[in-house]
């Protein structure tokens, strides 16, 4: 079989780490000897052994003379675990096939160089786009130290996220809603505005039986979140961060007493400075945020330039209504030339609904 075939298998193993390895990358590895797969592995959880070491440990026979396929360049530095280059050199592997180069400045080609200097044949870029694509969050975070932000919303075919009375459950079907739960597992944090909390009283947890709850982040400039809100009452099940501009400790105390973190940041135009918030979240190791807010927060996020991807779930329904809400509110742009530009969307059919996903090409209207 070809290098591409084995790398595709390694990618399948890499995906098994989804949601568990953040802020590390998802990585898969396969050991092949004489045309036979003798070992497989993936990075299972943050802080645990990397994919290469797991694959080598699983080998059903000695790996001397074998080829190692790995979706991301092997690390060459001491972090939570020892360098994978050491394990490869000790194993007797004679060839390594790499999907994408690690953008981490501690690696960034050094791992490949070490292997070559020690006489190991290295091939690069096999299924490179796919190997880079599964780690779009990691690549963004390691380069910027700010979370990768996905703005997600569900709307009807006439662009409404709620009826004229404010009702929104449910716009999309079960298949699309399950995909949302998968993304709550995939991304480290989930963020809404105070308006969503006051209107919907959401849990913001992952409903998958084997899923991981994201860190719940609420932009609440004046600390108006009700103390009996679900995100406050069940903060033991999932961490909750209330982000405010208020410096009134008397207001903050009841939330802290309930187990929430209260993060005070500077205001911008009377609201939380979202760029300052992303910097603060990055320092906490939160590498990605699923933005599930309403139109006001979506507009602020776009204006501040923090949105990296847009996910639009479109249902074959029409709500109508001049006062029915749309996914992006605010003042809006004055002319088509000022539009936020998106890349050509990836289209996924989810039951009767459609998911459109686009990278944001121009993400700020600010000077």
From TrEMBL:
Residues binding substrate are 168, 184, 204, 207, 292
Is-annotated flag, keyword Ribonucleoprotein?
no
Query: Which cofactor is essential here?
Result: Zn(2+)
Q: Which PROSITE patterns match?
A: CYT_DCMP_DEAMINASES_1 (PS00903), CYT_DCMP_DEAMINASES_2 (PS51747)
EC number(s) stated in the UniProt entry for this protein: 3.5.4.26, 1.1.1.193
Q: Per UniProt, where does NADP(+) bind?
A: 154, 170, 196, 200, 221, 294-300
What this protein catalyses is: 2,5-diamino-6-hydroxy-4-(5-phosphoribosylamino)-pyrimidine + H2O + H(+) = 5-amino-6-(5-phospho-D-ribosylamino)uracil + NH4(+); 5-amino-6-(5-phospho-D-ribitylamino)uracil + NADP(+) = 5-amino-6-(5-phospho-D-ribosylamino)uracil + NADPH + H(+)
Domain of life, per UniProt, equals Bacteria
Q: Would the keyword NADP turn up in this protein's UniProt record? A: yes
Any idea where the CMP/dCMP-type deaminase domain is? Answer: 1-123
Gene3D superfamilies per UniProt: Cytidine Deaminase, domain 2, Dihydrofolate Reductase, subunit A
Which GO annotations describe the biological process of this protein? riboflavin biosynthetic process
Active site (UniProt): 52
Q: List the Pfam families hit by this protein, alphabetically.
A: dCMP_cyt_deam_1, RibD_C
Q: What is this protein's function? A: Converts 2,5-diamino-6-(ribosylamino)-4(3h)-pyrimidinone 5'-phosphate into 5-amino-6-(ribosylamino)-2,4(1h,3h)-pyrimidinedione 5'-phosphate.
What name does this protein carry? Riboflavin biosynthesis protein RibD
What organism is listed for this UniProt entry?
Ethanoligenens harbinense (strain DSM 18485 / JCM 12961 / CGMCC 1.5033 / YUAN-3)
